[in-house]
Amino acid sequence: MQREHYLVKGLANENMKTQVRNALEDLDGVNKVCIDAARGSIEVIYKNPATTDEIRNAIERTGNIIES
């Protein structure tokens, strides 16, 4: 298992949080998604075939901006 942590702008409400969670959980290989909207952080636990590029793209497709 691998773990990625992202600081994200745009997690303004529960709807955005749900959209991000659904987009990430739809990726094959993603095991767990933890989102803290107050801090703007997303942690993703995953294994192959999921990749960091796919994870980043899923977050950005929901209208959020990855800061780091």
From TrEMBL:
GO MF term set: metal ion binding
Coiled-coil boundaries: none
CDD domains reported in the protein's UniProt record: HMA (cd00371)
Residues in HMA domain copies: 2-67
Protein name: HMA domain-containing protein
Organism whose genome encodes this protein: Clostridium cellulovorans (strain ATCC 35296 / DSM 3052 / OCM 3 / 743B)
